[in-house]
Amino acid sequence: MQQTTGAEDTNQRDAQIGEWLLMCNPWTTGGARLAVHGSARVHWNGTQFEVIAPPGPAFEPAELHHYEIRLKTVEG
Questions:
Q1: Phi then psi for 29, rounded to 5 degrees?
Q2: What is the maximum span of the chain, computed from C-alpha positions, in angstroms?
Q3: Fewer CB within 10 Å of terminal CB in the chain, N or C?
């Protein structure tokens, strides 16, 4: 997990908005290909994140290495 942007929305409310990048294994623990959809939520370290873009596959020369998934969180 890596935070890519952060902002505060002070127009009529006190909100903190953050965008994050999740790099994850493309396979489940059972060996199946990981499926991530736009309606999915990610829970990490006590925070809930919304998936905001389709997962981007990252390849090494021979095969799929990991997925990069853009996430968003809004607090307040």
A1: -65, -20
A2: 51
A3: C
Contact between 71 and 19 (Cβ < 8 Å): yes
**Does residue 4 surpass a pLDDT of 80?**
no
Task: Give this prediction's pTM.
Answer: 0.72
What DSSP string describes the chain? -EEEEEEEE-SSS-EEEEEEEEEE-SB-TTSSBP---TT-EEEETTEEEEE-SPPEEEE-SSSEEEEEEEEEEEE-
54-66 pLDDT, tens digit each:
888 889 888 889 9
Chain mean position to CA 57? 13
CA 50, CA 30: separation in Å to the nearest integer? 24
Task: Please give the Cα distance from 70 to 14 (Å, whole number).
Answer: 23
- State the residue for tokens 């873009």: 53
